[in-house]
Amino acid sequence: MTASETGIGVVGLGGMGQLHAESLRDLGADVVAGADLVAKQRQQFADEFGARTYDDHEKLVADDAVDAIVIATPNRFHEPIAVAALEAGHDVLVEKPLAHTLESARRIAEAEAEADAFCMVGFHNRHTAATAMLEAQKAQGRFGELTHVEANYIRRRGVPDAGSWFTNPDLAGGGALIDIGVHALDLALYALDFPEIEEVTGVTRSTFGDGTEYADPDDWGCEPDTYEVDDSVTAFVRCADGRTISLEAAWASNRESTSEVVVQGTDAGARFELGDSDLSILEAGTAGVDHYADVELTGDPSQTGYATQDGLFLEAVATGETPSTNTIEQALTVQRVVDAIYRSSETGHTQRLAAEPIEESPARIRCRE
Description:
The chain is an alpha/beta fold. It folds into two domains: about 5-125 and about 355-369, NAD(P)-binding Rossmann-like Domain (Rossmann fold, 3-Layer(aba) Sandwich), CATH 3.40.50.720; about 130-300, 2-Layer Sandwich (Dihydrodipicolinate Reductase, domain 2). About 35% of the residues lie in helices and about 25% in strands. The protein contains eleven helices and 15 strands. The strands form two sheets. Strands 14-13-12-11-7-10-9-8-15 form a nine-stranded mixed beta sheet. A six-stranded parallel beta sheet has the order 3-2-1-4-5-6, with helices on both faces. The longest helix has 20 residues, at about 330-345.
């Protein structure tokens, strides 16, 4: 199968579904079907892509022209759609997070383990130019041993519309942590090559969801209202080998917005912004005189995380070779840490995480052999 012969079906035809469909079309795939409950979105998708549209995912899964499925629905619906697609033998790209709860995420992982298909999870920030340069410098040993990652994703004001699914705990599974915090958390774990996690502590807050007056200068659409999810989180992760991660994420906070990631190593460190194309290398030396050596690496801004990620997905579907990145095992690790942060905040105690073996799917075993 070639990229142009790959039939893509998209479930969830809002902004993210549209973005993936456009990206995959630009990469040469054939977007053949879409599914959504909203008739207007179905019509817009059909007009844009010339695709058949359905009002439920089961009809799309049964479409013979569909080879792979992209899931861009509210988090709660990831599981039934992903499980149905995997059981039908369709490869899947599901938007982050893997699911709205850890138990739901585990069921998706179990379905992949029994399927002759794979599931990628949409943590696209791994594939920006800045992250690619970080990985290359790391592979060359420039940082020495990585010891700590400080990961931030903070909006000064940016609570989603309180009437949307993002602030509905039943649909989203949480607030700022599970929405944007997972991006920073995943990238921190990725930089450390997904080490074994020993313990997690964290505090989530709902500072602005109390119905008081809320300023919205950037017009995110959030009117004063109440919501039962977190709008900020502070967390600390300790790995079994002593390395650590600090996480700060917020939809709204009385500080400057930032999505800065700082990586500390024994020989050098690095700093960059999520989604950016530039990377700062932070070093010190003794040649001549003791000095600091800050080097700016400028990457190609056209290398977007979404395009690179979707390209890897399409290539894997077309060649039948299961991808080694954005795996369900990695996404399940992120989900376990998210769950531990919420439990730590609720109980007021640090949560210890035991190793959790995950059975490999036939598709991954076949690829390795």
